[in-house]
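Exercise 7. Predict the joint structure of the components listed below.
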Amino acid sequence: MKRKKYTAAMLGLLASTTLLLTGCGANTDTNTGGKTTLTLWHNSTTGEGKEYWEKTAIDFEKDNPGTVVKIQPIQNEDMDGKLQTALNSGDAPDIFMARGGGKLADIVEADQVLDITDSLDPSLEGAIGQGVLSAFEVDGKLYGMPIAVLPGGIFYNKDIFTEAGIETPPTTVSELESDSSAIKELGTSAIALGAKDAWPAAHWYYFFALRNCSQDTINATAKAKNFNDSCWLKAGKDLEAFMQSEPFNDGALTTSAQQGAGSSAGLVANNKAAMELMGAWNPGVIASLTPDQKPLASLSWFAFPEVTGGKGEPGAMMGGVDGYSCSAQAPKKECTAFLNFIAQKQQQENYASAFHTLPANKEAQQAVTDPSLQSILAAYNDAPYVMVWLDTLYGQGVGNALNSAVVDLLAQKGTPEDIVKAVNNAWTRG
Amino acid sequence: MNTSPLTHALPRPRSSNWRQRLEILVFAAPAVVVFVSFVILPVIMAGYYGFFRWKGYGTPSDFVGLDNYFAIFQDSAFHEALIHNGTILILSLVLQGPLAIVLALLLNQKIRGRAVIRILIFVPYVISEVIVGIGWGLLLQTDGAINDFLDSVGLGALKADWLSDPQIAIWSLMVIISWKYIGFAVILFLAGLQSIPEELFEAAAIDGASYWQIQRNITLPLLGPTLRIWAFLSIIGSLQLFDLVYIIWGQYVSSTAGTSTMATYMVANGRDAGSYGFGSAVAVVIFIISLIIALTYQRFVLRRDLAGALTEGEK
Amino acid sequence: MSVILTKKGGRTDHKAAARYRWGSPLTYLVALVFIAICLGPVAYIILGGFRSNSQITESPAGFPSPWKFDNYLDVLTGSTFWQEVGNSLIAATATTVGVVVLGLMTSFVIARYRFRGRGALYSLFAAGLMFPMTVAITPLYILIKNLGLMNNLAGVILPQIAFALPVTIIILVPFLRAIPDEIEEAAAIDGAGRFGFFFRMVVPLSIPGVVTTGILAFVASWNSYLLPLFILNDQSTFTLPLGVQAFASEYSVDTARVLAFTSLSMIPALIFFALFQKRIVGGLTGAVKG
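Solution:
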């Protein structure tokens, strides 16, 4: 009798395995009860930003009864890898976050993203402006909808500056060094740095490069595919010299940028560090990390200081443009309707207040009230030119190699020459 | 083994025996198909993709010959990863082996509470790498629990950047690895100890051998095969270490912190950089290195142990 | 592999004769120190879930004061956690069943048939020990993509079965070889064919080995991270390790809640292991209770 039982059990197990293997797929069809579903990936996993997307989805569904928007927040640091995997395998979300530059060009080349040139609402052309739109153009065609402009610079805590006896923010690198020393005297970290995520550390190099390299050199490098111009090496040397003053927080190498109270933004939010070099999304990130989850009242902003003998034009800025693209498989009509919807004035004002950042739509920029953002906006409107982040500009492969090499430099494991070498190697790898 | 007067029931090899062939096919084919498709084929595919520059979209077309391989061997970041793998491999054997033997001897005694102690010692082995990474990551942060604890017991001088100081990070990683995997070594050694016949110990005890003499002259030699197998699994594990490093140090800074491994190098420069051809070439290099080490080990260390698996009859 | 190769007649179980006594205080002291080291980090995770974030920030190494239960309650009442437990269970169960069934069938052929190519077959699987999944992950992901199994648990299960086969076969072959020929002869005299022999004799006799390999496969699947990371993008298909990581980044601000989620996700594997730990050691010793 016992044997029969074993046989039966075995057969049962076999049968159930087969069932499991055939019947446990994820259900990702795009049709729920005759409605079109749009899946959306964004990178705001906390607080007001997350709520903004939930509310926007509901508002859009009200205006477009035939459409359902399914939202998935993905942590910023996981976004690139996950999106790449999803685009490779042809099951990308319908709407995903894009930052233009070389990364977008790669996806365009692979026919994975929708050309929305003809679908752009004509009224938005003027409201956003050609300069910002061009961030999402490849060969004269538009592949994404800008919704935020995010120029970078140094965010700082006015109260700590006052306490350290600093009256005006630094305008040169040597002033920045002496101000940092004064702040360290107080027992506070001078500059918070989230080097674990690599890009925040790399931004220090980018800005030294922006000051050292001319606009033409930065643009020509994308085509020349090497860092042989001497300004790239000088940017590394300047950063190395700046590092000698030990301005960054202890343990910067394993400090993340935005995750939790121990991250670099968290250090600023909790008055444990005075400064952080970041893009215009930072007031929002800091607000979500303060003890009461309110914006930090003493937060202000100054432009990256000038370096002596640099070829970059004074006042030049670097920053990103955040936007959203439709993947090639997305239902075009509904998807582009959504992109136009989020770029309208009212939505953009909601966006700006939820994220504490600068909307891409100029009509919505009146709504910016945060003092640190207002000073960014003023600098942005006066800037002779605005470069896009180097890792966005030069594409993912080169961007990763550059970022890692800068982290090595900051950890005193590499030299400025190694940065040039790493980038040149990455370009040969393609 | 007694050979019965009856002939062996094991069928003699008869090439005309279609029935036996059918049986072999029915029993072995499913496993062979699954194994070949998901283990052997991907390795062959990696070999193919490794010759291309390819971003992962569509089919690879930009043939670059051995360029990817030259790039790997010229890349100092890869050399470092290789050195870290080697360090982890040797330290794992040195740190875990002796400790696991002591623990196994301890837990092999028939003492009260043995079962509970066993379960508790195996806990780290059972929880997933992700949990271990998150937990230890929080403990070891510069302003985390360990430093806080050192402060509160007056040992503030011992505080360190456990994870971000390149001098210390690899040691922190070794502590975490040992903590996580020693349970597995103990399980294996316990199994090995239990297969040693009790009579041997009893006889030795009657002859007046001390506990330590028994361990040195009976237990350790008889545990040899188990030790060698464990060392083999540990070596393979060290060569392919990925999860813990990736979770604790994230996607970018493991090489700077001095904890990168060949596998994290592969993921960072392959998938994360969008260079699938290059990533595949790294996979092939890891595979070849693992293969050489494993074959060498089998040839010189494991030969006697595996011989029994296929030979007929008893030793 | 002679751990596992011990033939029958190894250790007989003195269950009745096993007298447990109190060991020396030193033994317990050493054990206690080890247990403290093993459990410290785990206790930190579990206790952290009962604290608030401000408690954790203020004093990272402190105890909960006051104890807060809402972190755990939030996780337990949310649907995410249970869905991920379900996915992990499906993946681990299917992997275990698949590995055991396929492994047993192949081991049977290798252990009890003589044919040309038997050695090659064994070596093929034994070589698999040297193929870490990490190495194959990129092409494996491309293969799964081409099979249309992305975001599908089957895309995780099938490769896991394949990669668990080598260890399984290496453990099971000696078990099956240890079955005395007399039993096979008796079965043959009773008129049982090879299939009959397999189901009536081989399967029951190899239970200890099956349990061992099954548990190893189950725990490996339960904890596996790299493969699901590549294959599963859709939150509804996440297994627990992915879920823990996603949760940790989604609520990165909320350390206490992350710790609560993390400690809850440990529990199923711990229970499973506690139930079967005796069988693991028993199975590995290869003592066939004939």
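Discussion. Chain A touches chain C through 43 residues (CB under 8 Å).
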